[in-house]
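Ligand: adenosine-5-diphosphoribose. Inputs:
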Amino acid sequence: MTQITLVKGDITKMHPDAIVNAANSSLLGGGGVDGAIHGAAGTELVHECRLLAGCKTGEAKITKGYNLPAKHIIHTVGPVWNGGSKKEEHLLYSCYYKSLELCAQHKLTTIAFPNISTGIYHFPKQLAAATAIKAVTDFCESEPEAFTEITFVCFDDENYTIYQSLLAATHITNYE
Ligand code: APR
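Predicted complex:
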């Protein structure tokens, strides 16, 4: 049984096997959570990222965590919100699902996600949260033994409140 957890805080301080980065297609760092993760991981991270030759929207790639408490970072590129007619929901779902698949391939059993695309990429928070939860619950239904804990990390109150009510509605109640 996978524990699905909700916390409010800074993902760079967390200790799962992997934290997920809301990156851009270059994978060479940026602002927001990308900037925080690169800042906390240290300069070795960007050297490894350079070898990955970028990442397509909706795809995911893995690196070491370097100075982070998390052993690995899953870099995924969320969609920029363009009004909803450019497959944004499908691409965001894919970010979560492919990050879980990549983690499972590496036999990692705990993972923490930020609220991908809801900052600089302006994806509506309510739809993003519903999409994230659907991708995670779909994955857990198909691979119930793959993860011991999947954590949603909210950095702001608005996201936290949205996740709290959506998770309660899905009867997933193990959240802090
Ligand atoms: N821990 C957890 N969540 C964080 C942190 C942090 N330290 N810092 C920011 N966040 C949250 C934001 O509040 C937002 O809810 O991460 C979510 C995603 O926001 P962004 O980081 O802006 O990411 P995104 O909207 O996916 O845009 C990606 O921004 O930083 C650049 O290089 C990145 O071009 C890419 C774009």
